[in-house]
Design a protein that fits this description.
283 residues, mainly alpha, Leucine-rich Repeat Variant, 14 helices
Length: 283
């Protein structure tokens, strides 16, 4: 005799309730596999898949360095994945960061980037899989993936949403590669024909936290010379975040007032910049 449908439904719901509690409590094999099972089941609704991703993502972030039990299981799931729903789930999890760093440790980067590149290039991958694969690649902060992303994900005629997502991820890099390779790429966006790309460039530059002349001067030029209020306000907002003091330009201000405030801000920024450089040299 078949068990009543109501009891079956209750059993499924009970599993969804108990497995997350166990996973939060210490990531038992059973709890992890319960959440993996949710992702493997193509019929599960998006709400259940999102809960599983959240719990697995939290477990990955809590793992001790060198103990990548949960991450290893997710990579295994990715290697077995055939459908776009599972690929999306895995790419999303591999794109996560903890304390500003990818959840993928350096010793697993080669394996993970190979998997993500395969999905990015696969003819049967949908847009969401390609986007999160590209973001996950960027978040590894592996210098080897930079040229790959520049050639494939950031090409001017590519998908706008994907380009913006990758640019924001690359803006989270730090060090010489950010200043010398990534920032100049983002600065180029300030002269794009598409206003949305220009605004995205301003936003990504804000995330770089760079206040070098190579970043500040192009933003100043955009804020000063653009006739599109959305663009010059985006540039001014980024300048305020990078340069240490906000630029207040009231609505309806004429060009003369705008340029005067920008000039005053630039003068103050250059003084602060010289002082910071001098302090750095003396220190």
């Amino acid at each position: 005799m078949q068990p009543p449908r109501r009891l079956l439904r209750l059993a499924v719901l009970l599993g969804l309730v108990l497995a997350p509690a166990a996973l939060r409590g210490g990531t038992t094999d059973e709890a992890l596999e319960a959440q993996i099972g949710v992702l493997q089941d193509q019929t599960r609704p998006d709400s259940q898949r999102a809960t599983a991703r959240r719990l697995i993502g939290s477990a990955i972030a809590r793992e001790e360095p060198g103990k990548n039990v949960v991450l290893d299981r997710i990579i295994k799931l990715g290697n077995e994945a055939a459908g776009n729903r599972v690929r999306f789930d895995v790419a999303y999890l591999l794109a996560q960061t903890s304390a500003g760093k990818s959840v993928v440790p350096p010793n697993r980067a080669a394996e993970v980037t190979a998997l993500l590149q395969k999905w990015y290039e696969a003819a049967d991958s949908d847009a969401s899989v390609r986007l999160w694969s590209a973001v996950a690649l960027a978040n590894t902060q592996d210098p080897k993936v930079l040229d790959y992303l520049k050639e494939r994900a950031l090409k001017p005629d590519g998908d706008g949403a994907l380009r913006v997502a990758v640019a924001r991820a690359l803006a989270g890099w730090r060090g010489e590669i950010l200043e010398k390779q990534i920032a100049p790429l983002l600065v180029e966006w300030l002269s794009a024909k598409d206003p949305e790309i220009v605004i995205a460039g301003c936003d990504a530059l804000r995330l770089t936290e760079l206040d070098t002349e190579g970043v500040i001067e192009p933003l100043l030029a955009l804020a000063r010379d653009s006739t599109d209020e959305r663009l010059w306000r985006a540039a001014a907002a980024t300048l305020g975040r990078l340069g240490g003091s906000a630029i207040f330009i009231k609505g309806g201000a004429d060009d003369a007032e705008r340029k005067a405030k920008l000039q005053a801000w630039e003068n103050a920024w250059r003084v602060r910049r010289k002082r910071a450089v001098r302090t750095e040299k003396e220190g």
